[in-house]
Amino acid sequence: MLLAPHPALNQVLGIMLGVALALGDMANAWQERHLPSVRTTTPAKVVPAGAGPDARAARRSDPATRDRDLIVAAQTGNTMAIQSLLADGASLKARDAEGRTALIAALYAHMGAAARLLIQAGADVNLQDNVQNSAFLLAAAQGDAETVRLALSHGANLRATNADGDTALIPAARRGYVEVVNELVKAGVPVNATNNLGLTALIEAVALGDGSDKYEKTVQLLLDGGADPNLPDRGGITPMRHARQRGFHGIGALLFKARGH
User: Fold this and answer.
1) In whole angstroms, what is the distance from residue 190 CA to residue 157 CA?
2) Which of 116, 108, 185 is nearest to 151 (CA)?
3) What structural domains and CATH numbers belong to the chain?
4) Is pLDDT at 183 greater than 90 in this prediction?
């Protein structure tokens, strides 16, 4: 049997319900005033700096920014960024604090693909940085035959030297870069030029190489290109004497055949 609710109990329940509703209204009012972030709204999308639609417009209006970005893109080998920056008007002649253009910066970082893209876009292969390195000289010194060929086809200065007096041929011979030496000799880079230490490409190949097959090929290319087998260093030591002192019999035979002594 169901019991009828007591009038006093109904009164208590009514009071409790009223208090609960009042507290709820107070909580909602406080929340709206002090905690707006808890409202069920879609959060704003965070756009990284430089990634929004306004970034490119800002870059276009600031030559210094786009020129700096081009050098950074070249250093990191970012060919897509290079193309975008060039389209936005970045200068191929802009330089950093070391006097490096984007092309020179790319080669210091061994970014050959980026360097070739810049050359094809019109970058000057003969501009030199603060230590007189050009893109052409750097490519040769690094053994980058593909970039050397491209630089030659874009008017590379065959007589260019850096602060050490090195032509493109001297460091290439020193390191036994056979393919690069071949390209440079064929192009007409002076084979008997000396650097600030009085060393020719031939002397560096003999005195600073290891006498291996690649150095024998390098020596032969230099001799075929007109290198003087008897042109000594400042100490009066000829390539032949260097070869004998180091026990390089193969190179010695090549020099002897070329009438070296």
Assistant:
1) 11
2) 116
3) 164-261 (1.25.40.20)
4) yes
